[in-house]
Design goal:
single chain, alpha/beta, 4-stranded mixed beta sheet, 2 helices
């Protein structure tokens, strides 16, 4: 979805503005999700795409950072590790 400032939110639901990104981009995904939430007045979300077992470290980094700073971001994972 294209926002008024011409940035693009990957997925918009009734309640969330969601950024999809690969595991190694976990830190960028936090900033983008927060910005999209600000622009849309919806809850920020991140879907982290994990392709290999070694990507699990990115899931831990994402969620540890969110919890430590008490960020209002919901997270989901997709890919090989969710099975």
């Amino acid at each position: 979805m294209v926002l008024p400032d011409r940035t693009r939110c990957d997925c918009m639901t009734e309640t969330h503005a969601i950024e999809f990104d690969f595991g190694s981009k976990w830190a960028e995904a936090i900033g983008q999700a927060l910005y999209y939430g600000l622009q849309t007045e919806k809850k920020p979300g991140v879907v982290l795409i994990l392709e290999k077992e070694k990507d699990r470290k990115y899931w831990l980094r994402l969620n540890t950072t969110i919890m430590y700073f008490k960020l209002p971001i919901d997270t989901w994972m997709i890919g090989e590790l969710e099975r």
